[in-house]
Queue: 2 jobs
Job 1
Amino acid sequence: MTQGLQSIAFEQSPYVVSSASVVGKKEGEGPLGKMFDMVETENLFGEDTWEAAESTMQKEACVLAMGKAHIHKEDVRFLFGGDLLRQGIATSLGVEAFGIPMFGLFGACSTSGEALALASMSVAAGYGDYMLAVTSSHFGSAEKEFRFPLSYANQRPLSAQWTVTGSGAFLVGKKRSHVRITGITVGKIVDFGLKDSQNMGACMAPAAADTIERNLKDFGRVPDDYSRIITGDLGYVGQSILFDLMRGKEIDIKKNHIDCGMMIFDQNKQDTHAGGSGCGCAASVLSSYVLPKLERGEWKRVLFVPTGALMSTVSFNEGESVPGIAHGIVLEHC
Amino acid sequence: MDYINAFWVGGLICALAQILLDRTKLMPGRVMVLLVCTGAVLGALRIYQPLQDYAGAGASVPLAGFGNLLWKGVKEAVDKEGFIGIFLGGFKASAVGISAALVFGYLASLICEPKMKK
Amino acid sequence: MDRKKQQEAYENYVKKKTPVHNLPVNMAKAFITGGIICAAGQSILNYCEKMGLNKDISGGWTSMILILASVILTALNIYPRIAKWGGAGALVPITGFANSVAAPAIEFQKEGQVMGIGCKIFTIAGPVILYGVFTSWVLGFLYWIGKIAGIF
């Protein structure tokens, strides 16, 4: 059922039946290292290129998610997937082998939210019993596509974020589990005109603030109604901006806000500067850290807000700004 | 003595370029372009060559020296060959640097695999 | 407030919020790194001149050896680490130019000999060569006119 201006509250809330996370070496060495389902110490994942490695990561995440729930690929009605590469090629090549009818998505780093929203809508609408939502990012392929060759002698600014090598897959369906998606808030493009591709957090923070505010208003909630409000990859710079923006809206989320990009790496030891980013950041942290806490009931209800900086290298070179987007997913323990 | 001059002049040029990197939104590629062009202009204004005579490699090794080299090549060629020298001198003077970078860079791409950043 | 002013205000606000590297420290690091590379160049230059080579050829040898060293260090993934510490000190010398040629060549080798290595080898170095050659061409043209006019 529609709720407020941009949200949906499900009458029959779909369940997150299972999920899986696959990450690279650096992520495995981070604070959440032990929680991921799979850590590959070889960043090529046995493949020849970064792009193929990313596809393999997605494939493995999907296999793990389906395996945990003992669901065959034939039982999955639709797959919603995306990544950071041009034309979403990592997803196309990664999920091809499953033969699941699929929708390819692009929402930059917010793709996990987009995929979960569409998957839960499809299940709630009765279009299938199981849907798979999957996203990924890879440091090598993202740097190569958006920034510089990896061995180029550039100094990263302190506002730069480190693209997470990782993938998260979520099986959304009717089968009972301990976490359900009770509502979603679909974000709109929010662009404050910033043109700095090395400061993604500042580009995305306004979108996150907009979606969080909208979610609270649409559902008539206050921040304390959520055990945690979890943004995708604002990083250290983005978080401080988010707090300021929310203060401007007279909403205080400081107490219960966490950011996946700030949790996945050790700020003191891993030298990533402003934190992690990428489709795989929010997805792998949701699967490995957030969902288990919800399953155990440590958290009753969280608002998961993956954020995306919708940057195209072409429009960026043409002097356009970097638009932001954020989707809100309400997850509840049951 | 020439080592000290090379060290401090070369270091100073790099330190000045660091200001551009850190305090402007200029990407490294643009800083490199800027230095080469500046070097060529300073060369034409007869400022760079005296500096290079003083600092040796301290002025010739930074990319501004590459710009100065381009200018010197063009000037010599114009002196020698006239109009066509404008088209001749730049590449001739910079041939060693460009060829070496391309050849060695290409060979490296045949031997090495892409590696993750540390 | 119109949109443009709003955007400017946000940009200024973000600038204040965003941490930046400590400039004096970074400049010192660039100074040391660049200085060492230039001093290394000087030692090659001195050696060549001692061997009786003329100035231009000695300069050529110096460039060639520095470029070779830089490409080897890039291939071994050591040059990016020098640059991470030394910043512009590793970018500005000719070794930085060599790195900017070798790095994309290595990175894009998977995309093939022509479209991969062949095209992408110039992604960063291409502009340097283009604008360097163009600037010197313009200056040369002015010099040529000046010569005809009898100024030089």
Job 2
Amino acid sequence: MDDRNGFEERLREARTRRGLDKPQPNRGSLPGGSWGIGFRAGVEVVSALVVGIVLGGLLDRWLGTWPWLFLVFFVAGGAAGVLNVYRLFTPRRGA
Amino acid sequence: MAAEGKTIDALSQFELTPVLGIVGHSVGFTQSNALMLLAVGLITGLMMYGMAQRSLVPGRFQALAESAYEFVQGLVTEQIGDEGKRFFPFVFSLFMFILFGNLLGMFPYAFTFTSHIAVTFGLAAVVFVLITVVALAIHGTKFFGYFFPEGAPIWLAPIIVPVEIVSYLSRPVSLSIRLFANMVAGHVMLKVFATFIVLLGGLGAVGPFVATLPLALNIALVGFELLVAFLQAYVFAILTCIYLHDAVHLH
């Protein structure tokens, strides 16, 4: 068993030396090339904006304050979209 | 059908039509529902039939069932940790349902039920309710600290809290739009290039030769769509796991 473990270890080292093993992607990283990442970033921004607009509109209709809360949540939605994209590219905290 | 009027009709493939005759018509049972039931039946059949033998050296179906199980189990334990094991049945059903929905949609004459925002948003809403309930059940009112990071100056709260709430609420929306948009875009592209084949094929003597170009592209697209079918089911499952991780550990 020890021999076999040692062999696996040496094999992995040799493979890493020759660049045969690709470095393992980080935990929590999603697959996807540049198109995938770009598409994901776009979806995050759009969905945050949509949520902000809908939320602001609904609150305005409820409270009768059109268009003030709509404007506030439009900006908040844009900021949340940027925040989502920022979170997409920063590694997750903790483990 | 698509090319009869010399026009490209790429969106009629997403129309719902009732099946099962008059009964289906009266209760609104469409081909989308039929394929959902088929997907559930196939998944259940795969797991039941595959694991019926329980042999030490797995056969084809057992190997398929086991690899699907181990794939999702690895995903769940790696993302959420040991607490994630109790969410395994949920993530597994979600992953298999979306995967089979995407793959069944690749068959000719089949319907892709994941190409409807109502379906994907329904799934994402279930995920959203689950992560909120889990976070509230584990952390109680501390959950609301999620919307205001520790150490931030208190006068920033009116700015940070709405932004964080909108960001949190945008999770199910982005989750559902991603899956829906990928499936719609892929099937529209397939249909458009398939229509090109028919239109170019009718161009007299050179037609059949020119038509091989969109045909070749369509073959490549089918392969690409199979990749997307797997990838989007995987992305949906892994994002569910990431959200569950946030709900369990709350940071």
